[in-house]
């Protein structure tokens, strides 16, 4: 037998897993409430807050309900919320004018929250779908999504949100050129400090189903979004989109959906080293909650493990419907 090299390995990785204390010391990534953005559905339809059937625990909130949610988020230490409107079908048109109405539900909620809960950052969504009679993110003529005309509308929409007090604009429409157009318009209108979190790599995904129920776009949408959202078979294209959006003036970028696209998160973070977010979308939430409701998965453990996957993949933060539940659990240690 060799006296210098014993027959058994010196490298025993199990040594550092022996106790909770050693596991803590060896842990590479940690979850923090400070890395979460909480998406909230708001509605201009009068009444009480209503639960979204395909998203148990998630509500469409009235203006008052939204302010209460912002207060709750601030108490829990969540740094930002993101607003998504469910608009009365009566205000949806093919020209989507309600999108840049200074008094639309989003802008009213922004102003109310800024007044009552000034410490929370407000992110918005820029896309025409909540206001579009045909459910698309862009203007439609003869069945074709019009890029440049849509960008003009998106700029008006973003300026109205900035004017109302939004801190982070989130263009989720996937039109070409919208980041540059929006950035120039913000500079020109005295809103140079407003940040843009670009939905840079947004895939044409079936995981958005419950969201479209939540914002009332399911019935309205004619066809699909494949001429503007990305093909799930592509990865290099995500890199080109992120490079383009950064060059046009985005401050942060997003990959969406989240869990099925962690490889994209990793590539984006490694290549660009910029603030990189993932959106754990409605379908991912619904999938976990459905299994939890059946007693097949443990809610708390699966939620935290799913959120950890984003940190491990290199994301700086995550948009997640689990934000308040996760914040409460993390606070309990
Ligand atoms: C709208 C938008 C969508 C989501 C965020 N913004 C839906 C879509 O593109 O059809 C999806 C979010 C989710 O599923 O949680 N442009």
Automatic annotation (TrEMBL):
Is Nucleotide-binding included in the keywords of this UniProt record? Answer: no
Q: Where is the active site?
A: 202 (schiff-base intermediate with substrate), 256 (schiff-base intermediate with substrate)
Tell me which Gene Ontology terms the entry assigns under biological process: protoporphyrinogen IX biosynthetic process
Q: What is its EC number?
A: 4.2.1.24
Which reaction(s) does its UniProt entry say it catalyses? 2 5-aminolevulinate = porphobilinogen + 2 H2O + H(+)
Q: Name one GO cellular component term.
A: cytosol
Supply the alphabetized keyword list. Answer: Heme biosynthesis, Lyase, Porphyrin biosynthesis
Q: What Pfam families does its record include?
A: ALAD
GO molecular function terms attached to this record: porphobilinogen synthase activity; zinc ion binding
CDD domains named among the record's database cross-references: ALAD_PBGS_aspartate_rich
Pathway of this protein? Porphyrin-containing compound metabolism; protoporphyrin-IX biosynthesis; coproporphyrinogen-III from 5-aminolevulinate: step 1/4
Top-rank taxon of the source lineage equals Bacteria
Entry similarity comment: Belongs to the ALAD family.
- Assembly state and interactors? Homooctamer.
Q: What is this protein called?
A: Delta-aminolevulinic acid dehydratase
**Provenance organism:** Thioclava pacifica DSM 10166
């Amino acid at each position: 037998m060799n006296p210098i090299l014993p027959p058994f390995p010196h490298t025993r990785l199990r040594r550092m897993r022996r106790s909770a204390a050693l596991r803590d010391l060896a842990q590479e990534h940690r979850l923090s409430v400070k890395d979460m953005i909480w998406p909230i559905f708001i509605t201009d339809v009068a009444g009480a807050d209503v639960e979204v059937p395909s998203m148990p625990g998630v509500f469409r909130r009235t203006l008052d309900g939204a302010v209460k949610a912002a207060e709750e988020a601030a108490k829990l230490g969540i740094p930002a919320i993101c607003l998504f409107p469910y608009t009365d079908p009566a205000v949806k048109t093919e020209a989507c004018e309600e999108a840049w109405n200074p008094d639309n539900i989003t802008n009213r909620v922004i102003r109310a929250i800024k007044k009552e809960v000034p410490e929370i950052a407000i992110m918005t969504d820029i896309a025409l779908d909540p206001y579009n009679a045909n459910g698309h993110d862009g203007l439609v003529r003869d069945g074709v999504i019009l890029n440049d005309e849509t960008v003009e509308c998106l700029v008006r929409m973003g300026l109205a949100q900035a004017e109302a007090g939004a801190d982070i604009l989130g263009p989720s429409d996937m039109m070409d050129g919208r980041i540059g157009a929006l950035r120039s318009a913000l500079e020109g209108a005295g809103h140079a400090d407003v940040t843009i979190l670009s939905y840079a790599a947004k895939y044409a995904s079936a995981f958005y189903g419950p969201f479209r129920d939540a914002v009332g776009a399911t019935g309205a949408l004619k066809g699909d979004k494949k001429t503007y959202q990305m093909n799930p078979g592509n990865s290099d294209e995500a890199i080109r989109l992120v490079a383009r959006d950064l060059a046009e003036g985005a401050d942060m970028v997003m990959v969406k959906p989240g869990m099925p696209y962690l490889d994209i998160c990793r590539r984006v973070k490694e290549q660009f080293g910029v603030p990189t977010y993932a959106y754990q979308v409605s379908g991912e939430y619904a999938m976990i909650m459905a299994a939890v409701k059946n007693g097949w998965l443990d809610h708390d453990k699966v939620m935290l493990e799913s959120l950890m996957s984003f940190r491990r993949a290199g994301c700086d933060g995550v948009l997640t419907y689990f934000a308040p539940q996760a914040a409460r659990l993390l606070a309990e240690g």
